[in-house]
Amino acid sequence: METDPTIPVNQSRFGQKWKVFLVTILLFGGIILLDRIVFSKLYFLFPNETEWDSSPWYNFLYRTKELQSTQDKHRTIIAGSSVALYSVLPDELNRENNPQTKYSFFSHVAMAPTDLDYYKEDLLDSHPDLVVYIHNFADLQWEYQELINGKLIFNEKIWVTQFGDRYPAKTIYPGDYLMDHWKELPRKTLSKLITKTLFYVSRFRVFFWDPIEVYIDNHFRSGRKYHLYQGEKPKEGIWSKGWTKESATLECSDKKENESIFLQKSKTKLRFRFFTHINSLEKPIHEMEKTFDRSGWNDLEWNSLIPASLDWRAVQIQIISELSSAKEVNLIRYGRDEFVGIRLSHFFCKKSTLENRSYSRGTYWDDTRLVTKTIPDFQADYFERMIRDAESRPELMRLHLVREAKKNVNKVPFEPWWEFNRILNISDYFYQHKIPFVLVLSPENPIEFDFYKSSQWRKDWISSLKSHLNARGQTLIDHTEAVSDVRYFFDPHHLTYEGASYYNHIFSKSLESQISKSNP
Description:
Elements: H1 9-41, H2 56-68, E1 75-80, H3 82-85, H4 90-94, E2 102-107, H5 113-124, E3 130-135, E4 145-148, E5 151-154, H6 156-164, H7 167-171, H8 174-181, H9 187-198, H10 200-204, H11 210-220, E6 247-251, E7 258-263, E8 268-275, E9 286-292, E10 296-301, E11 314-319, E12 324-325, E13 339-340, E14 343-344, H12 365-371, H13 375-387, H14 397-408, H15 418-432, E15 437-441, H16 446-449, H17 456-470, E16 475-478, H18 497-510, H19 512-518
Parallel strand pairs: 1-2, 1-3, 3-15, 15-16
Antiparallel strand pairs: 4-5, 6-11, 7-10, 7-14, 8-9, 8-11, 12-13
Helix pairs in contact: 5-15, 8-9
């Protein structure tokens, strides 16, 4: 096809380039629009069947959208890091008779004050009548504080770079972080945040398959792969990964034809006792023993263990051959070992419950076993789990840094810094928007609290926070010493389920006046 000789060559070329540019812009815009429709909207319509403490970034975004699309008569939102998640049990609080408020979490693991400062608009859009920020010394990002010549120096340069590589910045607020720190960020982090600002698929790829895989596991597989055990719980207790103790006595509310059990060793011999009711265990109506030749997952057919004519409701399964240990099956790595029995399938002897449990915490032997120890035994176990060789164990590195920071603050005066000031920004924001705001200093393990309990630094830190909040009609509640039994703590700052259950009443009682004021 010949070019029209009446059109100048330069004009023809310019017109063609212009068309290509416009088509490119339209395609790019269409991709961005499709990305926002699919990954920011439709993706979160998929059922969330993930369990407690799994897929934290997906669950946080899912919860945020859920709160923003619903309203309660009175809503108290509990914000904070994993310390908040492990301190209180909103499900228990919401089951109380005539509750004055509905408690909801706005929380994810490792939420720093900086993160919450970036989320404050999202939190406001979640319709809170009262915001409670559960805060802890460990939340203050001590890895960026360095003791130099008797002063704590905040390393802003390293902080900016490393925060840009954290999941919250990359997944939840890449655009805002980019706007604030683009001049200081290295090129690699800069390009990564630009991509994640433009495309939700880039942000969400780290967890995209999580809810889909859980849905497939729950609906189309045998229940042999799961995050937390959700079947009937034995009277003796059960580990969160489904491992029983030496024996497991439980009610079978849903008697399926087949169940699954996992055996650590081959040639494992089990004794089965069947009962008419879980509350009548004096005499079994049937009893038998069976040896399973192979290790791993095995089918369990009830009809091969008890005649179909016998009506039973409860069963006791006991290992009568060699037992395995918690360390052997990778339930624990340090501390005192314990014997374990068999592993039960996901919904063993129970109908599957597939509602959203992402912020609902259950009770398991992982925590309960700590409460059953004597205090000297707990302290010895705690040293093995949390303190011995902490400086060389990667999983304890951050706890070791926080522990050293508690020692260091005894030597220095209190001075405000970046993360501390973020809390003041959050306070000011909710004051300006007339939303009641309460800052709660969460309980700390007395073993670790002693490192800085009497320091002038701590007194001035709390005094500074209290002064700022009081001037705005807000409240600081210091619950650092509210839980005195060390056995209620799993580590320096996280309460066990039993510890959280104990603290629940203290927590809710301390908020009564604030809830009454904000709930006319």
